[in-house]
Q: What sequence folds into this?
């Protein structure tokens, strides 16, 4: 029987004020990977300041669609999206 994992779409605020949007199944581990300079090249050039927001999605496809929609938003709209979504409990 396959295990169901919860996928998240998230926004990270970078040290320079820019915003990065991505998807993951483990928010804490992904944020730490970004902090360590692993993963997305953008995050190596724009170190992460904090996890701004995250939202649980039904599966990877839903998370990818949400990521695509969010990436098309203007920065102010991304911040409004983030403000409306408290960070979920990650179990850490």
A:
């Amino acid at each position: 029987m396959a295990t169901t994992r919860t996928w998240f779409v998230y926004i990270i605020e970078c040290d320079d004020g820019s915003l990065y949007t991505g998807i993951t199944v483990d928010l804490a581990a992904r944020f730490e990977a970004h902090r360590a300079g692993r993963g997305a090249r953008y995050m190596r050039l724009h170190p992460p300041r904090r996890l701004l927001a995250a939202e649980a999605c039904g599966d990877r496809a839903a998370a990818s669609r949400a990521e695509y929609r969010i990436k098309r938003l203007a920065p102010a709209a991304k911040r409004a999206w983030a403000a409306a979504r408290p960070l979920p409990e990650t179990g850490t």
The mean pLDDT is 90.
